[in-house]
């Protein structure tokens, strides 16, 4: 199993259990994590906070990976995520995540997704 496949499996487990510890264990001590809406998180404490924050946004969430590839120390994952936000609204969004792999650990995580899916339309 590649590091990318381990990452995908650990993320799905974290989503179903609401426990990111197995996912965080895949991160290197000096990991950096970033997405489109927050600052950059650093280190394993930052990874723990990043994934706890991610999980706290949802009542339920499940990422389905449609494509993935690992080569030359990088993993790329294309995904669709569906679930419910904490306020009860349904959510369905898609994106791409990239990991940089160092010694079998995630040295960097970046994710790009449709952030408009989180914005509730204003009624006219």
From TrEMBL:
Pfam families: SnoaL_2. InterPro entries: NTF2-like_dom_sf, SnoaL-like. It comes from the Bacteria. Residues 13-106 form the SnoaL-like domain. Transmembrane segments: none annotated. This is SnoaL-like domain-containing protein. It comes from Deinococcus marmoris.
């Amino acid at each position: 199993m590649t590091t990318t496949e381990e990452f995908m499996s650990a993320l799905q487990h974290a989503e179903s259990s609401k426990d990111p510890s197995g996912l965080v264990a895949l991160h290197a001590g000096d990991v950096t994590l970033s997405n489109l809406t927050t600052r950059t998180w650093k280190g394993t404490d930052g990874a723990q906070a990043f994934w706890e924050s991610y999980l706290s946004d949802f009542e339920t969430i499940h990422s389905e990976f449609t494509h993935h590839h690992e080569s030359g120390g990088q993993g790329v994952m294309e995904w669709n995520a569906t679930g419910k936000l904490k306020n009860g609204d349904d959510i369905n969004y898609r994106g791409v995540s990239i990991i940089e792999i160092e010694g079998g650990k995630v040295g960097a995580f970046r994710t790009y997704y449709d952030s408009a899916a989180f914005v509730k339309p204003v009624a006219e």
